């Protein structure tokens, strides 16, 4: 199977609050709108708020992993906007800096900063592999 594109589909309990959060509080740019929904750019992925597919459940099963350049600055910006920080930024055992924030539906947003010395930032072109000729 080949995946060419991906997005996260959100089924909000309160469509207006969810739209306001992603559009106004986080300031995500709109990729497109359609009757009943808005699709936002979020780095290399898309987030779709499907207002026509509201959730009646009290439990949300969606989490978003959102990479940011500077986690401390992000935390300050969110706090100044009145956003509740469920878990403040800290370095995880695996070396990433993470902060947890609930959106209006209780969905967990995991804001992540990848430190400069983390293996995810390593230039994989520097890894030497043996070239095997097939001639």
Can you give a write-up of this model?
The protein has 135 residues and is α/β, with parallel strands linked by helices. It has one domain (7-121): Roll (2,3-Dihydroxybiphenyl 1,2-Dioxygenase, domain 1), CATH 3.10.180. It is 16% helix and 32% strand. The chain has helices at residues 15-25, 71-80; strands at 7-10, 30-34, 37-42, 45-50, 63-67, 87-91, 97-102, 108-113. The strands form two sheets. Strands 1-4-3-2 form a four-stranded mixed beta sheet, with helices on one face. A hairpin with a 5-residue loop joins β7 and β8 (108-113). The model has no long low-confidence stretch (mean pLDDT 83).
In the CATH hierarchy, what is the architecture at level 2?
Roll
Strand order of the largest sheet: 1-4-3-2
Number of strands: 8
Amino-to-carboxy terminus distance: 30 Å
Helix content: 10-25%
Structural class: alpha/beta
CATH superfamily: 2,3-Dihydroxybiphenyl 1,2-Dioxygenase, domain 1
Count of runs of 4 or more consecutive helical residues: 2
Q: At the first level of CATH, what is the class?
A: Alpha Beta
| Stretches with pLDDT under 50, minimum 5 residues | none
Shape: globular
Strand content: 25-35%
In short:
The chain is an alpha/beta fold.
How is the topology of this model organized?
Blueprint: E1 7-10, H1 15-25, E2 30-34, E3 37-42, E4 45-50, E5 63-67, H2 71-80, E6 87-91, E7 97-102, E8 108-113
Supply database-style keywords.
single chain, 135 residues, alpha/beta, 2,3-Dihydroxybiphenyl 1,2-Dioxygenase, domain 1, 8 strands, globular
């Amino acid at each position: 199977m080949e995946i060419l594109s991906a997005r996260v589909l959100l089924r909000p309990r309160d469509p207006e609050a969810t739209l306001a959060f992603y559009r106004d509080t986080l300031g995500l740019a709109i990729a497109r709108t359609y009757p009943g929904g808005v699709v936002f750019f979020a780095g290399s992925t898309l987030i779709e708020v499907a207002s026509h597919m509201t959730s009646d459940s009290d439990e949300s099963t969606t989490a978003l992993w959102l990479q940011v350049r500077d986690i401390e600055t992000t935390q300050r910006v969110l706090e100044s906007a009145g956003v509740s920080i469920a878990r403040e930024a800290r370095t995880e055992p695996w070396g990433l800096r993470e902060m947890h924030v609930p959106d209006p539906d209780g969905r967990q947003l995991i804001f992540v900063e990848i430190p400069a010395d983390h293996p995810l930032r390593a230039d994989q072109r520097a890894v030497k592999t043996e070239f095997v000729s097939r001639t």
